[in-house]
Amino acid sequence: MKTALIFFFAVLSEVTATTALKFSEGFTKLTPSLIVVVGYGLSFYLLALSLKIIPLGTAYALWSGIGIVLTVIVGAVLWHEQMDWARIIGIALIIGGILVINLFSKVTTQ
What we know:
The protein has one domain (2-104). The chain is 79% helix and 0% strand. The protein is built from four helices and no strands. The longest helix has 24 residues, at 56-79. The chain is flat. The chain starts with a helix and ends in a 6-residue tail after the last helix. 18% of the residues are buried.
């Protein structure tokens, strides 16, 4: 459970950093730029801690997949980015992959 919580915060800090990247306007705004650096640093640190238990391939697939889905949601909410059928299908496939890994993978943790 502790590893899952650490992993959750790794994903959350990555999404926060990516969101701040948009707000930084090419690193021309100080506060969002600092959030980017701290957020990515924290995300990688927490991901590294998670890798003590979660297999590398599984962790990276979940970290990036969940991050993509949450970032698309943030883009839709904050910047009203449009969702066409290709984006919806792509996101559905990512979510499907996340579910397959979590529900059916028999890879054991260390």
